[in-house]
Design goal:
Pfam families: CW_binding_2 (PF04122). By secondary structure, this protein is α/β, with parallel strands linked by helices. It has 13 helices and 16 strands. The chain starts with a helix and ends with a strand.
Length: 355
């Protein structure tokens, strides 16, 4: 049964890569049965977006087929290929991409990138300081991507990255970066659409997983996701208010975002559980309450070493549960399906759903 298979969802070595689709070209009227992605154009955007210039909409991910037992596996031979497989699923037509570091020490730079990427009808792809990996390059060339937004400083994506992208046919590049992770987060939010609701998470290394669980809902709802510093929360609060935010969902408990950091935020309300898996479930419930479908769910790895898969999956815009080899993870999964029933589950990276 589908449900018992989900009960056995676990972290395993990355499965064989999902077969990639053929290249797509942008169209004014994407095909039925797929999401339609229309870029939100901003005068502040530092790259030239062909879709904004031409008024183009793009074909996005396939819509659920109505089968309550639908499972989609998106994985590749490594994290770079997994991100490319996610991009092929969610962004089979794209003129623009967002490039972030796929190296663990720099993942934090891109935690606020998912809402901006989705607003641009763009996938999040992974690079390194000194290279554009083969899977990333293949996606860019297959889709003739014309513009790439780099997220993070030169230590994350080196100074030669723009030259490497131009060699792949990219004609417009720009970098979004700040002096630290919090300033980078605010710079990304400043480019995203205005919204009355926002999401906030800790920027501390031990709690980054909370931001990953919030990224899909924030992206689908076109709402900002911002990192807040316990010791200096006022810039985050000001950045949210500058984008029109009047209420805030705070991902995680006081051990992540301290009460003194929560206080200045616009009308903050926590979504938190006893551990990262329960917190992700609380965020998913919050996203359903705010309009996301409960029967189109993402499973992402919730353990260190595999969190990057959730980073690349954020722009898909799905309610997200984290999976790990602990009872609390399985209990959350079972409780979700007891409450909401089953539908499409998309498992990314090191998460593989058993038979």
């Amino acid at each position: 049964m589908f449900r018992s298979a989900l009960r056995r969802a676990a972290l395993v070595p990355v499965a064989a890569a999902l077969a990639l689709g053929s290249a797509g070209t942008a169209s004014a009227a994407p095909a039925d049965g797929f999401e339609t992605l229309t870029p939100v154009c901003s005068a502040q955007l530092p790259i030239t977006h062909p879709g904004c210039v031409a008024g183009t909409s793009y074909r996005g991910a396939p819509l659920p087929d109505g089968d309550p037992n639908q499972i989609v596996q998106l994985s590749g031979a490594d994290r770079f290929a997994t991100a490319a497989a996610i991009a092929e699923h969610g962004f089979p037509e794209a003129d623009v991409a967002v490039l972030v570091s796929g190296e663990d020490r720099h993942l934090v730079d891109a935690l606020s990138a998912a809402p901006l990427a989705r607003s641009l009808a763009a996938p999040v792809l992974l690079g390194t300081r000194d290279a554009v990996p083969a899977a990333t390059a293949a996606y860019l060339q297959r889709h003739r991507v014309q513009a790439v937004l780099l997220v993070g400083g030169a230590d994350a994506l080196g100074e030669g990255t723009a030259d490497r992208l131009r060699a792949l046919g990219v004609t417009s590049t720009a970098r979004v970066a700040g002096a630290d992770r919090y300033e980078t987060s605010r710079a990304l939010v400043a480019l995203a659409p205005r919204a009355t609701h926002g999401w906030v998470a800790s920027g501390e290394d031990a709690h980054l997983v909370d931001a990953l669980a919030a990224s899909g809902p924030a992206a689908r709802l076109a709402e900002p996701l911002l990192l807040v510093a316990d010791g200096d929360p006022l810039p985050a609060a000001a950045a949210l208010r500058a984008r029109g935010v009047t209420s805030t969902t705070v991902a995680g408990g006081p051990e992540g975002v301290a009460p003194e950091a929560l206080a200045p935020l616009p009308a903050p309300q926590r979504a938190a559980g006893d551990d990262r898996y329960a917190t992700a479930a609380e965020l998913a419930v919050e996203s359903v309450d705010r309009g996301l479908p409960a029967d189109d769910l993402l499973f992402a790895p919730g353990v260190s070493g595999h969190l990057v898969d959730a980073l690349a999956a954020g722009p898909l815009g799905r309610a997200t549960l984290l999976v790990g080899d602990v009872d609390s993870s399985y209990d959350v999964i079972e409780a979700w399906f007891d409450t909401f029933g089953s539908g499409r589950v998309t498992a990314v990276g090191a998460v593989e759903i058993g038979d």
